[in-house]
Amino acid sequence: MDRRSVEAVVGRTEKLDSRLVETTGGRTKVRVYEGGSGSPLLFLPGISGLFPEDPFLAALAARHRVAAPLLPGYEDSEGAENLRTMQDVVLWAFDLLDAIGMERPLVLGHSMGGMIAAEMAALCPREVEKLVLVAPAGLWLDAHPIPDLFALMPFELPSLLFHDAALGARLLTSGLVPEEMRDASGKSASDLAALAQRFEDTRFLQAFLIQNARRLGMAGKLLFPIPDRGLSERLYRVRARTTLVWGASDRLIDFAYASAWQRLLPGARLIRVPDAGHMLPYEKPDALLEAIG
To answer: Most buried of 43, 86, 91, 275 (most Cβ within 10 A)?
Structure first.
């Protein structure tokens, strides 16, 4: 969904601004998208980061004071070499909150961001007002292994991450489509055949792979070889009211993980969203906004 499509579904959206913020004692400098007013909300995205003019973020900003930071390796954020472990990343997140003057936010985490959000709530339970975890990583079930994103070809991602693979192809390549591959309206082709064609274009493929390498270099510290850093042993410390949200068609982190999270977070509310895959914030933003409240 683009911003106009999201507005048609959820109503008003709001434009965000961005700035570079120094964190980790000046050893990292990260891009933070900010906007809106109202109750504070920290959004931690998944491995894909944020999309250009991110439509879900714009919808959040119409309801909350939103901050969405990008880890080093994403866009022009710097300092990945100084974040080596999950503990480093969690402390970075709290440093960021201090730097932007945001206290006791609702922390909304998607996928890898959900893993970080849960670690934040476990490490400093009094600093997180509420927790919303959207198909979070962080646990491992041998009966339901999570596909290795680091071993997949780019063209395999849309059908894995999205219920609507054509939407996935469009979003995952946004900002990277060469000019001559756009139609007269300025929009890029959205079907999977067109995506395959793009990956045959050496300039597009080079841009995509460079961007992906930077992202995966950072994400790999948290997710490779498996996304389990002992979080299950720390979740007993979480005190924040917690909501779990899962797409019924999630092919990356199976719905079976929702039950595992509920066992470890007694009292957590679970919402299952039909016709949504792993990228639920972009396929069913209205359902997620309702879950956030």
So the answer is: 43
pLDDT score recorded for residue 150: 86
Look up residue 236 and give its amino acid. Answer: Y
DSSP secondary structure letters along 25-51: GGTEEEEEEEE--SSEEEEE--TT---
Task: Encode pLDDT of 18-56 as tens digits.
Answer: 999 999 999 999 999 999 999 999 999 999 898 878 889
> Residue 169 has which token pair?
């192809």
Q: Is the dihedral of CA 47, 50, 55, 60 positive or negative?
A: positive
Q: Which of 225, 71, 254 is nearest to 150 (CA)?
A: 225
Q: Which residue in 51, 53, 19 sits closest to 33, CA to CA?
A: 19
Is residue 1's pLDDT more than 60?
no
Report the relative pairing of strands 65-69 and 40-44 from DSSP bridges: parallel
Q: Which two three-digit tokens encode residue 209?
A: 């792979």
Question: Per-residue b/e over 64-102, b at no fewer than 16 CB within 10 Å?
Answer: bbbbbbbbbbbbebbbbeebeebeebbbbbebbbebbeb
Measured in residues, the chain has a length of 293
- Taking each helix axis as running N to C, give the angle between helix 202-223 and helix 86-100, from 0 to 180 degrees, rounded to the nearest 10: 100
Buried b (16+ CB within 10 A) or exposed e, 234-271: bbeebebebbbbbbebbebbbeebbebbeebbeebebb
- Each residue of 174-188: pLDDT tens digit? 654 433 333 333 344
In order of their start, the domains of the chain are: 3-145+225-292 (3.40.50.1820), 149-219 (no CATH)
pLDDT of residue 190: 44
**Banded pLDDT at 204 (limits 50, 70, 90):** low
pLDDT digits (tens, 9 = 90+) for 218-259: 999 999 888 999 999 999 999 999 999 999 999 999 999 999
